[in-house]
Structures are given as C-alpha cells and as structure tokens.
C-alpha cells in the first residue's frame, strides 16, 4: 500500500521532468510551429555545460545562455528561411541534431561524463529525494517565469500577437523577425536549463537528447500547441499515468500504455487539450 | 636543397623497378585485412568504442612484432550504430566487399544474434568479446568473453556465500538479461534462494523512480543487475538518491566495468560488487604491459576493462591460430584453434575445442572510491566454459528450452 501511495509523488516528479524538457519546446514548436528536432541537442548542450562548470547553481544561467545562443544561431542562419515549410524544418533540425551529437562526441568523447550533484542535494523527504524536489521547484519556476513573460511583459504580449496573427502584428509595427529570434532564443535556452536538471537523474553523454526528445513532443502535442496550461496538465497527467502504469505492469508495457492513451486522446481532441483561438485565416 | 630533375627521375625509376620486382605476390597479399565492427554511435557507443580501441592496440602491437605470417594486419573499422540490422549489414560488407580474414565485433547479444546467420552463411569468422547469456555455440564464432558458468554462476555463488537469500532481478529488456534471469531463477530454486521480483526496462530507459520504489519496497538482501548501457547511470543515480547503500542492499552488476564507473559517478556506485574475469588491477605480468601500452596510446586517464581485455585477447588468439594453421583460411584456423593457450592479462586463457569458448578465471570485485575495481574473490583456476550448463543438474530444463 505504501508503495502504491509513493507512486503519486513519483508520478508528479516524472511529470516535472517532462514539463521541464517540454517547456522550451512550447516556444519553438508551440509558438512558432517549428518542428524542432534539435531541441534534444540543446538539452544535451545544457547538460555538457553543467559538466564543464560542475556547479549546479552557476550552470543554470550559463546553460540558458549557451543553448539559447545556439538556438539563436540556428534560427538566424537557417530556420528563418524556412518558416511555413514544416517538413523542411523538420529535416533541417534533425540534421543539425545529428551534427551537434557528433560534435559532442568529438569534443567530449563517446563515453558518458560525470556531473557531481552538490552535497546539499543528497537526502530527501519521504520517497522524494532532494534532487527530485529541486527539479519540481525548477519546473514550477520555469512555468511561472514563462507565464509572466508571455502575459505581463511587452515583449511577451508582442510574441503572443505574432503567434495569433503574424500579418496583423507586422502591420501594427511589431518587428516579427526580432520576435522570432527572441522566441527561439528563450525556447532553446529553456532546453539548456532542462539539460542541467536531467544531469541529476540520468546519464550525460552525446545521445542524451534522444532520450528526451520524444517525450517533449508528446507533452506539447497532447497539451495543445502553444498552450502553457495544456503543457502543464499534459506533463503531470503523463507523469502520473507513467508512474501507475509502470507500477502495475513494467517499464516496457508502461510506454505502450502511455502511447496508446495519447493516440486515443488525440482521436477525440486532435488539437490537444487546449486550442488556441485565432482569427488568422490559416 | 635543390635536386635536379634527372636525379628525381632516376630515383622514381629505381623505386618503380623495386616495386616491379616483387609486384606479383605483394599486390595480392602483403597485408591481411581484419574487420572491427562495433557501435561507434548510439546508446552502446559508450562501451563499444573502448573495445575497438583495445583491438586496434592489439593489431598495432602484432604488426610491430612482425605481423602474422610475415604480413601486416590492416584493420577495417565499421560502425554498427547500436542498431542490430546495421550489424548484419556491415558484417556482410566486411566479408563480401572488404574480404577480411576475420571480424572482431559486437557487444550486445542482439547484435551477435543479428550477425550469426551472416557469418554462418558465408562461412566467415567472428570473434565476440563480451560476456553473454550462453546457450549458443556457433561453429563460426569464437567467444572470448565469459559464458554464464564463468560469470553469473560465480556471482551467485558469491552472493550465497555472503548469506544473501532474497534477490531482486533488474535488467534491460532484451535477450541477455532475460536468459540470465532464467538461469538465476533456476539456481535460486536449487539453492534455497528467493526471487522477490523481476523487472525489465527498455534499452536507453532513464526514468527509474518507479522501479527503485518497487525494489526498495520489496526489501531484498541483494539486487542482481543486468541493465546495459546508459540505463545503469540513471538507475544508480536514482537508487543512491533514494537512500539505498551498498551495505544495506548490494547490487551485483555483470555489465559495469571500469569504463562505465566514471559515467555513472563513483559517488553513486562505490562499494557495489561486480562480476567479471578481469580488472585493471588484476596482477599478472601480461596485464602490467597491457595497461601501460593502453595508457600510452590513448591517454593516462583511460582505464582498461574486461570486455576490452577480451577484445584485445581475441586478436592475439586469432593471430596465434593463424600462425599455427599457416594460413588465414577459415576452416584451417578453426581446426588449429582448439587447445591454444596464451598468458593474457587475465591469466591463462585456453580455447576450448568443443564449443569455441575460452577457459577463464572468474573474479568478483568491489568498486573503489578511485573508480577502479578491487578483487575480493576468484575461482582459483580457469573454469571450463559450459555454455549449455550441461554440468549443472539444476539447469537441465534451461538447456532443453
């Protein structure tokens, strides 16, 4: 019975990891519609930043800047020429992710590297270790930050305006190119932050991004494109579903169950949990 | 210095003439191609790259000592990419297109099972360097890693000696862990041990909180761990942060060697037992030389591990068989191989004629805070390989199935 009760906080903590890795994608994929396969590589870049610094607190802002800068370069050099061509951006970003993965392998070697968790994160409360609680706190901070940015700052409101109607936003004097740049910077930066977080619980190697990219897309698709509250609900829902499905069956079957539930859900609500209502004609 | 044109022409002519004089046999075979087929990318790259490096070192050393049959070995390296069909495809390429004399390759059993039909079909030779689940003996494969009676059963003997009666089995979801666990369950039934749980996770799985909750909830005396690759990092990190220690609940692993310890983080795994046939700290003259040569070639911070040593041995054992046969022709090499015994870093290794596995000494070690592994138990002498466990009455039903 205690094991059963324990699965509840475990589910929430799995949800927090999912939310954190998907948060950046709600920007690049959700807001801008770029199927960004390089998202996993930005997570990896964040993880390697943590490896180089070996200091969790310092690594969080550093990883945001490193991954954000990589995203910015990618957007400026390539993606901005391909807006409105989802298949081309998919192929492009996938290619970029392969290049970045190989680059990491050449720079840091194929074997995993060690990122030491700070000593103040050893121990825990009940079933949840401190490092899981830290990730949950980080996820909450991330969501609040993104929410604040989108609804309470001028830049954020302009971002939303561009998402809802690009032409109208442009004619109102918003520099849409700059907004795209900024959105991609923030989205990629958040992936970097997630990368630092996952070093606490998982392996740090060149293929790290592969382990999280599919889950990140699942959360964004199930939550509804560009919907922050959708992403939050989807991440927590999937976390709990994963936790209990694995508890009653095993890890392999739990994956099957999660996929089956998402497929069934998207049959009923193809747009995800929440739909962005827009007056755009497309 | 300037060299006048006529002199250059003369030198070139002389060089051409020198080539021409023995061009006939030389063009045909002044060198022997050997294939090295490991995952250099993907989830298994972490482990397999080091085996390839050790094999390259062996090739280099053999060439320095004059090669084999007076010919230089030329390695042809291919990437299996952690993808089983790719292994079969690249094996075919090495055999058919590059016409290599033999292939050293593979790590996971899935990759070996994918390559097996290729080698049997083309009657080519594969040297497989990793401990595996046994119950196999292909006439075209030499197994230089341990089979179950040289690693898993000694591991269980060790746990039994330590008074561990209740076990929890954790493994990656593929052929090696599932077969290994069948053997462990049969052993447990015959030895009065209890299996509290048996869990599998997909390769590359990184979310272990639920599984850790199941394991700690069951309160076993020990965990037998057959996870492979990156999953071990996530499992040990999350087990450690859940408060489990090596003292209260040791986790005996059969796929974690020196190379993996760094990636997992010594903090997370120090004190845990592992079962292998070789450690970097194994005290033999051949091992001193091997460790020194490896560090000289790849860097002082590098470590050597059991699969690396088995891969390194494979090249030497094959070279020895070729010397004895006087040819690289596969059937002749197979005929020459049985009984070949070499002093290797792990001690005396002898090729068994019946099943093409090796006689190997089993060793249990404890992971030290410096990341190396200290031996705490060994089998005393090389154990005869028994892939079908014919010598163990309790395993009778396994071999049949």
From TrEMBL, chain A:
Membrane-spanning regions, if any?
6-27, 59-79, 91-110, 130-150, 182-204, 216-241, 253-269
Give the location in the cell. Answer: Cell membrane
Query: What keyword terms does UniProt attach to this protein?
Result: Amino-acid transport, Cell membrane, Membrane, Transmembrane, Transmembrane helix, Transport
Say if the entry is tagged with keyword Transmembrane helix: yes
Taxonomy, superkingdom = Bacteria
Would the keyword Transmembrane helix be found if you checked this record's keyword annotation? yes
Question: Which Pfam families does this one have?
Answer: BPD_transp_2 (PF02653)
Q: Record's Gene Ontology CC terms? A: plasma membrane
Per the record, the GO terms for biological process are: amino acid transport
Name the InterPro entries on file.
Answer: ABC_transp_permease (IPR001851), ABC_UrtB_bac (IPR017779), BCAA_transport_permease (IPR052157)
Tell me a Gene Ontology molecular-function term this record carries: transmembrane transporter activity
Query: What's its membrane topology?
Result: Multi-pass membrane protein
Which family is this sequence assigned to? Answer: Belongs to the binding-protein-dependent transport system permease family. LivHM subfamily.
Identification of the protein by name: Urea ABC transporter membrane protein
Species of the source:
Nonomuraea fuscirosea
The organism that produces this protein has a lineage beginning with: Bacteria, Bacillati, Actinomycetota, Actinomycetes, Streptosporangiales
Automatic annotation (TrEMBL), chain B:
Q: Which InterPro entries match?
A: ABC_urea-bd_UrtA (IPR017777), Leu_Ile_Val-bd (IPR000709), Peripla_BP_I (IPR028082)
What are the record keywords, sorted? Signal
Give the Pfam families listed for this entry.
Answer: Peripla_BP_5 (PF13433)
Q: Does the keyword Signal apply?
A: yes
Query: Entry's PROSITE patterns?
Result: PROKAR_LIPOPROTEIN (PS51257)
One biological process term in Gene Ontology: amino acid transport
Query: Does Cytoplasm show up as a keyword for this record?
Result: no
Signal peptide range: 1-23
Q: What PANTHER family does this protein's entry cite?
A: ALIPHATIC AMIDASE EXPRESSION-REGULATING PROTEIN (PTHR47628:SF1), PTHR47628
Q: Which NCBIfam families match?
A: urea_ABC_UrtA
Its recorded name reads Urea-binding protein
């Amino acid at each position: 019975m205690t094991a059963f009760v324990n699965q509840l906080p475990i589910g929430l903590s799995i949800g927090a990891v999912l939310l954190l890795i998907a948060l950046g994608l709600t920007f690049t994929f959700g807001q801008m519609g770029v199927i960004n396969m390089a998202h996993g590589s930005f997570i990896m870049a964040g993880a390697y930043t943590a490896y180089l610094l070996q200091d969790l607190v310092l690594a969080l802002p550093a990883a945001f800047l490193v991954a954000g800068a990589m995203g910015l370069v990618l957007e400026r050099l390539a993606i901005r020429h391909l807006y409105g061509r989802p298949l081309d951006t998919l192929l492009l970003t996938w290619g970029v992710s392969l290049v970045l993965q190989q680059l990491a392998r050449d720079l840091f070697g194929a074997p995993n590297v060690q990122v030491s968790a700070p000593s103040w994160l050893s121990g825990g409360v009940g079933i949840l270790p401190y490092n899981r609680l830290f990730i949950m706190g980080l996820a909450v901070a991330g969501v609040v930050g993104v929410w604040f940015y989108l609804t309470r700052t001028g830049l954020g409101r302009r971002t939303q305006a561009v998402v809802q109607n690009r032409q109208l936003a442009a004619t109102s004097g918003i520099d849409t190119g700059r907004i795209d740049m900024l959105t991609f910077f923030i989205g990629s930066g958040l992936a970097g932050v997630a990368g630092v977080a996952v070093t606490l619980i998982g392996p740090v190697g060149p293929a790290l991004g592969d382990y999280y990219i599919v889950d990140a897309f699942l959360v964004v698709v199930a939550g509804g494109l560009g919907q922050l509250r959708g992403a939050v609900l989807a991440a927590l829902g999937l976390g709990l579903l994963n936790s209990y499905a694995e508890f009653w069956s095993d890890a392999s079957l739990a994956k099957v169950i999660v996929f089956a539930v998402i497929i069934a859900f998207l049959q009923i609500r193809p747009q995800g949990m929440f739909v962005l209502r827009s007056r755009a004609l497309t | 210095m300037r060299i006048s044109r006529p002199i250059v022409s003369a030198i070139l002519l002389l060089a051409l003439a020198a080539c021409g004089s023995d061009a006939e046999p030389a063009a045909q075979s002044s060198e022997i191609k050997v294939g090295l087929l490991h995952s250099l990318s993907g989830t298994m790259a972490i482990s397999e790259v080091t085996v390839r490096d050790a094999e390259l070192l062996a090739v280099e050393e053999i060439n320095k000592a004059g090669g084999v049959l007076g010919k230089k070995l030329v390695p042809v390296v291919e990437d299996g990419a952690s993808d089983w069909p790719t292994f079969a495809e690249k094996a075919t390429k090495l055999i058919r297109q590059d016409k290599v004399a033999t292939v050293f390759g593979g790590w996971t059993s899935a990759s070996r099972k994918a390559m097996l039909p290729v080698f049997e079909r083309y009657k080519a030779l594969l040297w497989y360097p990793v401990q595996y689940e046994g119950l196999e003996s292909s006439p075209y494969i030499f197994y230089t890693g341990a089979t179950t009676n040289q690693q898993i059963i000694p591991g269980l003997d060790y746990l039994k000696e330590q008074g561990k009666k209740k076990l929890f089995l954790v493994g990656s979801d593929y052929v090696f862990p599932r077969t290994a666990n069948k053997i462990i369950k049969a052993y447990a039934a015959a030895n009065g041990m209890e299996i509290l749980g048996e869990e599998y996770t997909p390769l590359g799985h990184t979310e272990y909180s639920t599984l850790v909750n199941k394991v700690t909830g069951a309160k076993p005396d020990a965990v037998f761990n057959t996870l492979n690759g990156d999953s071990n990092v996530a499992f040990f990190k999350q087990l450690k942060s859940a408060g489990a220690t090596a003292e209260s609940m040791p986790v005996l692993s059969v796929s974690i060697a020196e190379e993996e310890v760094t990636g997992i983080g010594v903090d997370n795994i120090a004190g845990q037992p592992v079962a292998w046939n070789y450690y970097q700290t194994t005290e033999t003259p051949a091992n001193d030389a091997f460790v020194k040569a490896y560090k000289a070639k790849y860097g002082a911070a590098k470590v050597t591990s059991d699969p690396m040593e088995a891969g390194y041995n494979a090249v030497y054992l094959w070279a020895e068989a070729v010397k004895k046969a006087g040819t690289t022709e596969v059937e002749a090499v197979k005929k020459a191989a049985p009984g070949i015994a070499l002093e290797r870093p792990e001690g005396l290794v002898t090729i068994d004629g019946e099943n093409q596995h090796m006689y190997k000494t089993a060793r249990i070690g404890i992971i030290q805070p410096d990341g190396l592994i200290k031996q705490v138990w060994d089998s005393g002498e090389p154990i005869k390989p028994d892939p079908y466990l014919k010598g163990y009455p309790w395993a009778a039903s396994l071999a049949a199935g």
